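Lab notebook, bench 4. The sequencing result for the construct came back, and we need a structural model before the next group meeting so we can plan mutations. Quick request posted to the team channel:

Model the 3D structure of this chain.
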Amino acid sequence: MRESALSGPLGQGGRLIGRIGDDRPPSRRSYRDNGRMKRTPFADLDNTPADLHTMLFAMLQAMGRHPEIQRVRRVAVDGLRPAPGQRLLDAGTGTGTMARQLAAKVTETGEVVALDFSGTFLAGARAGHDGSPVRYVRGDVSALDYGDDTFDGVWCERVLQHVPNADAAIAELVRVTRPGGRICLIDTDWQSLVFDGAPVDLTTAVLDLVRAKLPAFSNAMGRTLRRRLVRAGLGMVETTPVTCYFGDPASASVVLPMLNPAAPRDAFMPGDDIFDQWLAEVEQAGRRGEFLAALTLWVAVGTV
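Done. Here's the predicted structure in token form:
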């Protein structure tokens, strides 16, 4: 049962108008402080250059098709337990893929609200609409324009690592979920990222640089999900770590941007001084059949 929930919006966020909402982009923000990102590029997509935005959208689409990400999602769907007739919220829908998959579970008697902070990403998600009962709206997960107890369940995948105040966002998700409804959170534990096959000193340097670049609140978000749901007053909290394994660089590069030569270096890469060497060593490890990468994503589900 819910122990406490905030009765109103938290801070400032997008306001919904019709299906898409107010498409005015938020003000530009500084993303770095002494080399560490204050926010990830996904935190303010509408202020990214058009070519970068297109690349990020395509990266998310490719990630969603990857067998390891699909494996994580199967665990999460089992925990959420979507059923015909339910009204679900996909908080941070991105490409809209999961909203459409959840819509197949709730059938025509239900509805999925696919919400995203980015108007341009939301337009891309809407362009992929397949006629299922999905409604695309713009909004802020930390300031939802919905009344208390609006939804039967919430899906929030790899969103909280991009939100400076994850607990405020979770409080909003709890507020809009009816008593007895389920909230499913999926997020990454970047501190769990490991590689093998490249020289140990180079690998260690790359991992240190990648983790130093990420915002401090992003690095271990996945492992904190259980604690956050418990503190938010949810019951029957179930937590499952799913370790994604990649046995070749091409497969890994779909999910891990620091292995993708096409990914924007300033946003994701460990530094130009060692990046080219890193990619060369990874490629050689792949040719020898020695490459390995692993990353744990956490699925946490609780009942309001």
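Residues 242 and 269 are 24 Å apart (CA to CA).
Will bring this to the meeting.
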